[in-house]
Design goal:
The complex is a heterodimer of chains A (69) and B (138). Chain A has 69 residues and is mostly helical. Chain A contains five helices and two strands, in the order βαααααβ. Chain A starts with a strand and ends in an 8-residue tail after the last strand. Chain B starts with a helix and ends with a helix. Chain B has two domains: 69 residues; 63 residues. The chains are: A mainly alpha (69), B mainly alpha (138). Chains A and B meet through helix 3 of A and helix 3 and helix 4 of B.
């Protein structure tokens, strides 16, 4: 699953450390989310979206995989 | 890091007693009890000394406490830990299957082989228990 976290975070001038502190996760988790290596739980996805005053759909882009039918 | 520092100091005193006691018992040719006392004492001492150091470090640098709390609750860290444990369990099961055969090959006593098999069955039983439990609650 892709996301716009890095783009939106940088646009708002927030550091990874600051975001991690607010969301109560480690900085590595923010880095992994931005790289697309880690998909957040639904709770963390809600926390992230709410922090940026966005919907989950605006923040996370769900792409159906070819074999996922 | 919860707990009282006095308890840590008391446990260090107890562990020193165990180590000295173990060293004393060695003179009477009772090596099993001596080994047990020294082993327990050393383990207890290291754990409690480490706890005291960690508590002192947290007192000097309160930001470490906050960071360690976040790290403990961090969902990615928890997921990684759980995945690592699951992988290790899978590998351990293969080893546990192989060990009795190696023991048979080495002509080990039957009770030893059966004990190892009992551990394997117990572990697999726990696996099934948690499968059923989590199927019900999740």
């Amino acid at each position: 699953m892709k996301n716009r976290l890095e783009e939106i975070r940088k646009k708002q001038g927030i550091k990874q450390e600051e975001l991690a502190e607010v969301l109560e996760v480690s900085r590595q988790t923010i880095g992994s989310l931005e790289n697309g290596r880690y998909n957040p739980s639904i709770l963390l996805a809600f926390k992230i979206a709410r922090y940026f005053n966005m919907t989950i759909e605006d923040m996370f882009i769900y792409e159906e995989e070819p074999n996922e039918r | 890091m919860k707990g009282n520092q006095k308890v840590n100091i008391l446990m260090i005193v107890v562990s020193i007693g165990l180590i000295l006691g173990g060293a004393f018992v060695i003179n009477y040719d009772n090596r099993n009890i001596a080994g047990l006392c020294i082993g327990l004492g050393s383990g207890l001492a290291s754990v409690n000394v480490a706890h005291i150091f960690i508590k002192r470090m947290i007192r000097k640098h309160p930001e470490y406490k906050r960071q360690s709390e976040i790290d403990a609750k961090d969902e990615r860290s928890i997921a990684i830990t759980n995945k690592a444990k699951a992988k290790a369990y899978d590998k351990m099961i293969y080893i546990m299957i192989g060990v009795p055969f190696v023991m048979i090959f080495l002509n080990s006593p039957l009770w030893m082989i059966l004990t190892v098999i009992a551990f394997y069955v117990f572990g697999y039983g726990l696996h099934l228990y948690y499968l059923v439990k989590y199927n019900k609650i999740m």
